[in-house]
Amino acid sequence: MADEALILAVPSKGRLEEETRRVFGESRLPITRPGGARSYVGAIKNQAGVSVRFYPAAEIARELITGAIDIGVTGSDLIHEAAENGVARVVLVKPLEFGRADVVVAVPDAWIDVTHMVDLADVASDFRYRHGRWLRVATKYVHLTRKFFAEWGIAEYRIVESAGATEAAPAAGAADLIVDITSSGETLQANALRILEDGVIMQSEAHLIVSRAADWTPLKKAQLEALLSIMGGVAPGISTQL
Amino acid sequence: MVAKTPSERRGAMVRLVESKTVQRVAPPLLLPAGPYLDLAGEEFGRQLLLTTANDGVEYCLRPDFTLPIAKSYLDDGMVGVPGAFTYLGPIFRQEDGVPVEYDQAGLELLGQPDAAAALDQVLTFARWALAIYDVTAPNIRLGGVGLFETFLAAMGISDHWQARIRHRFGHPASMHRLMQRLTNPEQRVAGAAPDARETIIEIVTDNMLQSGLSLVGSRLPEEIAERYIEKQALDASPIPDEMVALLVEYLSIVDVPQRALDRIYQMTRQAGIDIEDSLNTVRSHAAALIALSPKASVVFDAGFAPRLDYYTGVVFEMTGEAGDILASGGEYDRLLNRLGAAEPVTASGCALWTDRLEQEATRNNG
């Protein structure tokens, strides 16, 4: 029976955790975390068939794609970033109206000649000739960046992977421009970076996401439908797509 | 000589790559990733299967044969000596995030004195390889990188516009966007009088200093100012409408080689542009190709080019019934320069996807 529990992954800390628990609470599905912030196992009151796990948001995206968990709450940006074809392996069943942010291309404000992606394509094309090295883009969104730049026909650049404080990379001399996530744009402004006018790669938001790759037994499908109907806002029949 | 079984076909392929006039080579499976990333950037980099040494140096499983063959030709000091190299073996790529092993065969002709003859030899090689797998009527798409470059240069438009257009050649979506921008006057920025260069440099320098940006580490204030002025000037004096129309028409041409090339001849002659020599070069290769494989369905696609900027002259790809690319190649005279050759070295070659060829053979033979 334990194997048949529906595994729901919830972000393990911060605002994403708070907001997720609030949304589930408002749907009369209060999430409990008996062991406190250090525990990674939880439950939903009155839902014995659902086992809750607390994981970092990026890990939730990866596990949804591999099918190690059945459903989870995480940012749609992380699904796109976790694997090149990640979005094909999940169903984004419901936007949750929090965790909204854009993944954007931002250049130093001093680059007054670069306002659109076409300008960046021009700069990239002769950057190596002028400077003897590739144009460098700092980001933690490697897949999204490669895909977006390829759509714009930009091939002449290198990605510098950055785990944190990406916005500081240009001033630190580690990169020439960045691809990063921003909600208000304030951090970018404070670092004298400017979003290109057509440089929004994607608009991200926390979603309730179902894994296509998980092991879907008829019982688990029924539990999923039951849970989604309590949450509301999702048309029945999602489980037939799995 | 039609081979009947997979092992017979394999045997015939081995004989083809080990024929007397060529040298079969086998570059290592594990190669430094740097040269690939330097040559082709992130777009190809995403396809590499990477591994990192303890000292942080990145290696990849051999993703193609052309680069290591060209590189050892240079490193061995062979420049000036004609080289004819063949290969047959596995390559490794990531596709849709999944590692895949393919089998590839191919020919590289480096530093050949007669570049035109070399290209015909490459086409012959590809044709024979396809014949081993009983593919006698492939679809062949020819492209003219050299022809397009000549055409662009002969149009008499500014160098800056030429560079922008050339850079987008082979990427239909971004070329289309540029053509849209050029044909749609509303999207052109009104031609404000360019500001004084010195003033702009000062403004940019101030901005960079305030932002804590190094004035020498990345784009220089002068460079930004110059491109800003250039952009204003370009927007103020765009390419004449009739030239844009000519470009759009050129890029749309896809037809059997003779009709396609005749049409390019007509339209350029009417516009007073002389690119006859380049046209004749493409004509003769197309004719040679059609003579080689009379059953093939050959088209010249004026907008077709690989996205790697070291390709130069005629390029081609051959597809089978399933639509997969079975063979691709062409001329890439800029490759050895990109790798550091001090003098120009002609290069042409092709790569064959032997797994897909085997599938075609199996399909055709039931």
Q: How does this structure look, described?
A:
The complex is a heterodimer of chains A (242) and B (366). Chain A has 2 domains: 2-100 and 205-241, Periplasmic binding protein-like II (D-Maltodextrin-Binding Protein, domain 2, 3-Layer(aba) Sandwich); 101-204, Periplasmic binding protein-like II (D-Maltodextrin-Binding Protein, domain 2), CATH 3.40.190.10. By secondary structure, chain A is an alpha/beta fold. Chain A has helices spanning 14-26, 57-66, 76-82, 117-131, 142-151, 169-172, 186-190, 218-231, and strands at 6-11, 31-32, 41-44, 47-55, 71-75, 90-95, 101-108, 135-139, 157-161, 177-182, 193-204, 206-211. In chain A, strands 2-3-4-1-5-12-6 form a 7-stranded mixed β-sheet, with helices on both faces. Chain A is elongated. In chain A, 32% of the residues lie in helices and 31% in strands. In chain A, α2 (57-66) packs across α3. By secondary structure, chain B is of the alpha+beta class. Chain B folds into 2 domains: 6-24 and 63-152 and 252-364, BirA Bifunctional Protein, domain 2 (2-Layer Sandwich); 189-236, no CATH class. Chain B has helices at 6-17, 34-45, 66-75, 115-132, 145-154, 159-168, 172-183, 197-210, 221-236, 241-252, 257-270, 276-292, 335-338, 354-364; strands spanning 23-24, 30-32, 50-52, 58-61, 83-95, 98-110, 139-144, 254-255, 297-301, 314-319, 325-331, 347-353. Chain B has a 9-stranded mixed β-sheet with strand order 1-5-6-12-11-10-7-9-8, sandwiched between helices. A 3-stranded antiparallel β-sheet of chain B has the order 2-4-3. In chain B, a hairpin with a 5-residue loop joins β3 and β4. The two termini of chain B are 18 Å apart. Chain A binds chain B through residues 83-85, 108-113, 118-119, 121-123, 125-127, 130-131, 134, 143, 145-146, 149-153, 155-159, 170-171, 173, 176, 191-192, and chain B through 37-38, 40-46, 96-97, 163-164, 167-168, 171, 173-175, 177-178, 181, 200, 203-204, 207-208, 210-214, 217-219, 221, 223-225, 227-228, 230-231, 307.
